[in-house]
Amino acid sequence: MTVEKILRPDSKGRICLGQLARGVSSFHLTVDEGHRIVLVPYSEIPLREKWLFNNQDALASVKRGLEASEPGQLSSRGIFSQFADEVDD
């Protein structure tokens, strides 16, 4: 998808990206030799979830689970509501 817009800075030099920034938590900015500004959108993850991306075995397991959750690939393992009140250590 290519989007072209003319954006005008306000009196303080700011521009508004509006809907273009939906889901983006930050941008990496580069200004090249031709004075072109390139913004690369980033979406950070919470620190408590970072371990998953640092653990390739766990990440592969999650990916396999997501693939297996496609329609028709799941099988019931029973009801686990009896464990809902247990406290994790």
Helix-strand pattern: EEHH
Shape designation: elongated
Strand-pairing-aware structural class? alpha+beta
- The total count of helices amounts to 2
Mean pLDDT: 88
Largest sheet: 2 strands, antiparallel
Strand % is 5-15%
Strand order in the sheet with the most strands: 1-2
Strand segment tally = 2
Which spans of ≥5 residues are poorly predicted at pLDDT below 50? Answer: none
List the helices and strands and how they pair.
Elements (H helix, E strand, L loop, with lengths): L25 E6 L5 E6 L7 H5 L1 H13 L21
Antiparallel strand pairs: 1-2
Detailed description of the structure:
The protein has 89 residues and is α+β, with helices and mostly antiparallel strands. It has a domain at 46-70. The chain has helices at residues 50-54, 56-68; strands at residues 26-31, 37-42. A two-stranded antiparallel ribbon has the order 1-2. It is elongated and about 60 Å long. The termini are far apart. The model has no long low-confidence stretch (mean pLDDT 88).
Question: What key attributes describe this structure?
Answer:
89 residues, alpha+beta, two-stranded antiparallel ribbon
Q: What can be said about this structure in brief?
A:
20% of the residues lie in helices and 13% in strands.
